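A favour, since you know our structure tokens better than I do. Go ahead and set the record down below.
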Amino acid sequence: MSSGITLSAATRQNLLSLQGTADLLSTTQSRLATGKKVNSALDSPSNYFTAQSLSSRSSALTSLLDGVSNGIQTIQAANTGLTKLQGLTDQLKSVAQQALSASNAFTAKASVSSTSLNGATANNLLSVGATSVTSDGAIGSASGNLAMTLTAGTGSATLDTTAN
């Protein structure tokens, strides 16, 4: 034999109402825990798949926004570099203008009046250190006055054959 509990109609209605309230409380706690109104396709299929689609679209837009931010930072870095290069160019122009206006600026270029080297040898053209020139190995021949200035770095020397 089975024994059962007999409930009045009002008590049975209260019990069903409490069970429904417990189910709603469980659903509410689940929604609060996940932050989603629809957690599965069982809750509401159309709302669930719409939410999934919108979530995917949101992720794609976030990725695009990150790409745009990286692009902006790259452009800002390039702009900074170009600004620095412009400043450097202005400084170089200023230094060049100062060099041109300096009192010791060179105004004339050196010129070669003769291209013949009579009696030149590899030894007396490509020597290192002190060079002695004898009469048979002389470079060129002068039948008049000869003046030559040699400049190396900041020092210079002048050879003048007109002064005896």
User: Anything to note?
Assistant: The first strand starts at residue 147 and ends at 152. Residues 26 and 104 are 94 Å apart (CA to CA).
